[in-house]
């Protein structure tokens, strides 16, 4: 089986694919027409990508499986793949801990103003009086939009910080109550609830009105695009934190800028609407110039632990497909 890897990928994953007897072609800089040409030239049966966009032109006659070495599949034209009988599979949950770690890192950075501390020290300025002012995370209320793998990791970490948790998800839409025992077991967070509680909110706006920190963990789809709009942001108390390690398009960017300026909202963000297509390049999103905004370079899933786990899951998907013709985690069965 011929496998084309059109993105950065762990050596352990490449070795694992070769151990399956696959012919592995590693061309990590492919994109757009070059990607389509490579699929046709190599007659690849399997295409593996991370952030590389895969449109209909890249789905050559030989292609049978696309594996997104990550969770979301919004960079892949799933409808076109389905029309051409190409299976699309992903690796859900393998980077959840990494994303949750970054989300908490952004919270701590906002609360203790760590980047500003560092910048002043590097400029030869000592300002203990100013930077001693911090509220702390313990006892504060964390609002989570979403109830997937990352949100569950957030609940586990919130318990360690003695934070209360309020949750909204479409699966519990309209609910205003504590999680039931069955729901706790379904999410796998029972040990964490020895140290915290999880209350369901009936809507994103209701959640925003109850929390000190709002953290977004939603997949991007028509229902979630601009879900966090002015009506939701207006419910946050002045000076609240908003953390986005999901997708920038889930937040109305104009409303966010207004909330930053008018309500002194403080923001930690790892995702942007117009990110560079390559791993390095010029960056033009001025949201990071707003006061109280700390940004990172869409690195939520980028830890060695997460990438090794994703590589292993990718190999498992290809192995199963090679042996059975079926793919675990297929999103367009």
SSE inventory with pairings:
Blueprint: E1 2-5, H1 11-19, E2 23-26, H2 32-42, E3 46-49, E4 65-68, H3 78-83, E5 87-89, H4 96-112, H5 114-122, H6 128-131, E6 141-145, H7 149-160, E7 164-168, H8 181-187, E8 198-200, H9 204-208, E9 213-216, H10 230-233, E10 241-244, H11 253-262, E11 266-269, E12 293-295, H12 304-324
Parallel strand pairs: 1-2, 1-3, 3-4, 4-5, 6-7, 6-9, 7-8, 9-10, 10-11, 11-12
How would you describe this structure to a colleague?
It is built from 12 helices and 12 strands. α1 (11-19) runs parallel beside α12 and α4 crosses α7. By secondary structure, it is of the alpha/beta class. β4, α3 and β5 (87-89) form a beta-alpha-beta unit. The two termini are 21 Å apart. The chain is globular. Helix content is 35%, strand content 14%. A 7-stranded parallel sheet has the order 8-7-6-9-10-11-12. A 5-stranded parallel sheet has the order 2-1-3-4-5, sandwiched between helices.
Summarize the structure.
With 333 residues, the chain is of the alpha/beta class. It is built from 12 helices and 12 strands. 35% of the residues lie in helices and 14% in strands.
- Secondary-structure content class: alpha/beta
Number of helices: 12
Mean pLDDT: 95
Report low-confidence residues grouped into runs of 5 or more: none
Calculate the terminal CA-CA distance, rounded to whole Å: 21 Å
Task: Give the quaternary arrangement of the chains.
Answer: single chain
Shape: globular
* Order of strands, widest sheet: 8-7-6-9-10-11-12
Report the sheet with the most strands, covering strand number, pairing sense and barrel closure: 7 strands, parallel
Measured by DSSP, the beta-strand proportion falls in 5-15%
Give the proportion of residues in helices: 25-40%
């Amino acid at each position: 089986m011929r496998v084309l890897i059109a993105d950065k990928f762990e050596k352990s994953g490449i070795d694992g694919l070769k151990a399956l007897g696959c012919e592995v072609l590693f061309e990590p800089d492919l994109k757009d027409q070059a990607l389509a040409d490579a699929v046709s030239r190599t007659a690849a049966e399997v295409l593996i990508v991370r952030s590389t966009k895969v449109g209909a032109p890249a789905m050559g006659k030989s292609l049978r499986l696309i594996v997104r070495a990550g969770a979301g599949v919004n960079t892949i034209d799933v409808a076109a793949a389905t029309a051409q009988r190409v299976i699309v599979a992903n690796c859900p949950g393998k980077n959840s801990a990494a994303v949750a770690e970054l989300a908490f890192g952004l919270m701590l950075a906002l609360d203790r103003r760590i980047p500003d501390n560092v910048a002043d020290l590097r400029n030869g300025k000592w300002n203990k009086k100013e930077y001693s002012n911090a509220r702390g995370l313990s006892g504060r209320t964390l609002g989570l939009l979403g109830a997937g793998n990352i949100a569950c990791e957030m609940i586990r970490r919130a318990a360690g910080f003695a934070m209360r948790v309020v949750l909204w998800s479409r699966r519990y839409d309209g609910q205003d109550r504590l999680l039931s025992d069955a729901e706790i077991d379904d999410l796998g967070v029972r040990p964490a609830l020895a140290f915290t509680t999880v209350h369901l909110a009936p809507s994103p706006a209701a959640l925003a009105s109850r929390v000190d920190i709002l953290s977004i963990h939603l997949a991007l789809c028509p229902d979630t695009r601009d879900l966090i709009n002015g009506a939701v942001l207006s419910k946050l108390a002045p000076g609240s934190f908003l953390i986005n390690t999901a997708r920038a398009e889930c937040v109305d960017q104009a409303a966010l800028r207004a909330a930053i300026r008018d309500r002194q909202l403080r923001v930690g963000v790892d995702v942007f609407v117009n990110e560079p297509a390559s791993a390095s390049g010029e960056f033009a999103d001025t949201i990071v110039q707003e006061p109280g905004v700390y940004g990172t370079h869409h690195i939520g899933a980028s830890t060695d632990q997460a990438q090794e786990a994703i590589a292993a899951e990718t190999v498992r998907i290809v192995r199963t497909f090679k042996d059975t013709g079926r793919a675990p985690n297929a999103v367009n069965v």
